[in-house]
Amino acid sequence: MAVKKDLSINYLGVNCENPFFLSSSPVGGNYDMVKKSYEAGWGGVFFKTVGIFVADECSPRFDITRKEGTPWLGFKNMEQISDKPTEKNFEFMDRLKRDFPDKVMVATIMGSTEDEWKQLAKMCDQIGADLIEGNFSCPQMTSHDMGSDVGTNVELVEKYARAVTSATKIPFIAKMTPNTKNMEEPARAAIRGGAASVSGINTIKSITNIDFENMTGMPVVNGKSSISGYSGAAVKPIALRFAAQLMQDPEIHRLCAAQGRKFEYSGIGGIETWRDAAEFLALGCRNVQVTTAIMQYGYRIVEDMISGMSHFMDERGYTNIEQFIGSALPNLIPAEDINRDFKIYPKFDNKKCVGCGRCYVSCYDAAHQAIDWDEKKRKPILIEDNCVGCHLCLNVCPVQDCILPGEIFWKKGRKKTDIVMKHDYE
Amino acid sequence: MSKVDKPKYTAEAMAGYNHRTAMEEAARCLLCHDAPCSKGCPAGTNPGDFIRSIRFRNVKGAAEIIRENNVLGGTCARVCPYDRLCEEYCSRCGIDKPIKIGELQRYAIDQEKIFKMKTLKAPAKKMKQTVACVGAGPASLACAAELAKAGYKVTIFEREEKPGGVLTYGIAPSRLPQAVVDHDIAQVKGLGVKFEMGKKVKAADLEGFDAIFLGTGLWGSKFPSIPGIDLKGAYAANEYLKKARSGAKGFNPGKKVVVIGGGDVAVDCAVTAKLLGAEDVKIVYRRTLEEAPGNMTEFQYALSLGIGITTNMAPAEVIGTKKVEAIAFDGRKKVSEKSGLKLEADTVVFAIGQGAEDVSDLVAVDTDDKGMIKANKNGKTNVKKYFAAGDIVNGGKTVVEAVAQGKAAAAAMVAFLEKGVK
Lengths: 426, 422
Prior knowledge:
heterodimer, A: alpha/beta, TIM Barrel, Alpha-Beta Plaits, 2 domains, 13 helices, B: alpha/beta, FAD/NAD(P)-binding domain, 3 domains
């Protein structure tokens, strides 16, 4: 029997069968799409952003980055919020909520004035949305009264959050933009305005490629292009950083406590696998959202997110997701608090070594000339005196488990303690 | 039931890489510090560098590296026994399987053609001395290209209508399409090398040249000393392939073809028969596959076309009255001497190596008992200003070795000619 674990989680008072949601994007833009995603196993949807504004889109509107043979390292899109009439979108959401009462419907909205935000919030009330997300972060809106231009303005974030939370009792999530020097300030503003949660990150302003055929960016729209949002695997490290910074911000926790709740965060950014999702959960996220990987592979990827997460929990003896949410957070500390008293030499496994010399090249050209090269045997030899224990060699070695952490060396005059180190590298 | 492929005679056996698949393969390369693959290439084609160029999105640079080091880079990409050369040295073998170096080389040369690149250029200022190359096969082409690059005026003499030698007349087009050969030869022509085609060269023609290269190859038909080899329908591999390749009108090997031999040429003959429509094609070799000089990939290709391979059987007699009707074999001594075999055949092809032709009417160079010209590793013969390399010296090896030896001879010829100036 396939391993199945209880992946259910309470997010903002709503019971979710699992934390895997579609993010507000083209992947959840009408009834049939969301129905199919539900049937594939997704726990809920952040429905494609609805505004009073109806988007007029360009063609083409996507581009990708690749590295060697790997396509979709990152993904750029020029789409705005929904291009369907506002009423039509609410009708889709209404039907979906009625037909799939156990799935979680999050209505993502975007207004351009206080009144529009209020009006949209009331419409969410009428269709019985479980949660509302406010999109303060789309970086490619053609109107500057909306999107990330709003999300970087703390006064507007607070004002519009208050507009929504004054118009409805449905918990409100403010979706953050990464196109800002820090995310704590707009997140605090949203919470001051009554938001129950924040989500992030929306896409990063980008130019993915320059097209030399037309001497413009990609995608090429009538010989021109624009800066627009970047997503996918390439942005995951940045998304994780913002998640950790928000989760570790004392002011956010204080503001939430004052409202009688705990801070809850929904993580977005480059999630393709159960492992990516588990990383966000380990940083304290109670919900994760996915788009780019679905655009590339389809809704079916959730099957391996569910199964893979179940196996992960089984291996580690977790019976529910709560048991590991936030467990990595205490171990992320400021650079000044890192122990710098020792170095760990690399250990070369000569039997596994295929003699490519990549460790030698990188150590010489980019580190500390701490590897000698035996030309005849085609093997690296560590020069311990030069080695600083940076592990660049371990990271360039193409052979699994060929270079691993070895002996610990204590710097002169430093106090030996028990060291926690990593042993397993994939 | 096994799946058997049924391609056309002129169809290439394998589709080449496109940008994406080439990049996927190049990304598998470990980019070794010491590039052992490059050490594995006799002709110095330098795969370590050209794969790195592909990987860093510089396919034109890759084509330059190949072309500058190996003027027959397109041909070698198709016919090289990679698994015994560069790919055998590939460090990736220690992880899973080698990089498909030949396929990447083919891709780079394909791009060279698509972009109409002109990589090789001869210096505008020419040297005074002139050079003649006899034969337009791989060794001569490589030698001529190197000398032209060094500024010498080179003339190639070839008795056949088209240049290429064994490339044009001796390899099945499924393995080496004529367009690939022509594209490589166009690079040699682009260097200003003069081609005198359809001319059986005489000693007098060579008199005015300051240095002469003999790359005449092996075109003497070789048959075993058994009865029946004179019957109609019994061929030596070279004449059989030439007939097929030059499109001799209505050439039809019949329904049943037996090829005798264990090299790549034997496979070429069998594949040719199959692709020309023969129903029952067999390769019979007197030793084991392990002892066979041919490439396993070529034998596997033959199998994929439904060609049978029988080992440890030596030909004993070609049977027939006016034409070939069958061929009989004896089992290999001490292994299966009580065995025997008799196969019906419309055509019997002997691919058991080729013999040297007499070159004494051109020049009195020393030859060995098999008629091979005696030359050192730099192509020097016993006669001043005469150099030789390729099959006529080494007794019949690979194209890439002929290229390597042609290059080495050219270097020695340059040294010889420079000395003459002083």
